[in-house]
Amino acid sequence: MPNIAIISSSVRTGRASHRVALYFKKLMEERKLGTPEILDLNEYQFPVFNERLRLQPEPSKKLLEFAAKIKAADGVIIVTPEYNGGYPAALKNVVDVLYDEWRRKPLAISTVSDGIFGGSQVITSLQFTMWKIRAWVVPAMFPVPKVKETFDEEGNPADKAGVDKRATAFLDELMWCVEAKSRMG
User: Fold this and answer.
1) Which listed residue, 2, 24, 40, 57, has the most CB atoms within 10 A of its CB?
2) What is the C-alpha to C-alpha distance for residues 2 and 35, in angstroms, rounded to an integer?
3) Residues spanned by the domain of 159
């Protein structure tokens, strides 16, 4: 089964996007779609990096662990809130500190907001950044509008059947790309 890293991007107090990361982990385990692991940037609390990992003379153990998990993952799901049309600084920080780890990595993006648009404005800036560092951005997205109404704090959806249907199509696209990459070597 493929290893899937789920990056929970928000480090804000009272963050709600983490609910979506929890949901994806549960759904993948429930449907035996892979081995998911949440990489919670709030738990890592990385400092602002001043250099890429490969150029750091003495990278921290936590950074090396994070980089190894991204490198070992067969695919990545990024769950990100939208902050003023962009994504959190904590996410930009870990995206930019790595480089080779992202190369041709199948990557799916879930955007989250409290409003009705589901973080749709953040997708273009994050897609562009990931394309620039040569990740394989999956041509599917999973926007979550009104996240606090859609998911409870444990990641349980209010409309399980409806959300599962949308999430399955999203995950199917990621898994197709993961399978394609494994065949290509």
Assistant:
1) 24
2) 6
3) 3-184
CATH of the domain at 56: 3.40.50.360
Looking only at the bridges linking them, the beta strands covering 106-112 and 3-8 are unpaired
Contact 170, 4 (CB under 8 A): no
Kindly report the pTM of this predicted structure. 0.96
Token output for 71: 């490198």
Q: Dihedral sign for Cα 168, 171, 173, 177, please.
A: negative
Backbone φ and ψ for 33, nearest 5 degrees, come out as: -90, -10
Q: How many domains does the chain have?
A: 1
What value does the CA radius of gyration of the chain take, rounded to a whole number of Å?
15
148's CB contacts (< 8 A; 6+ apart) are 16, 114
pLDDT in 10s for each residue of the chain, 185 residues: 999 999 999 999 999 999 999 999 999 999 999 999 999 999 999 999 999 999 999 999 999 999 999 999 999 999 999 998 899 999 999 999 999 999 999 999 999 999 888 888 899 999 999 999 999 999 999 999 999 999 999 999 999 999 999 999 999 999 999 999 999 87
Q: Is 39 helix (H, G, I), strand (E, B) or coil?
A: strand
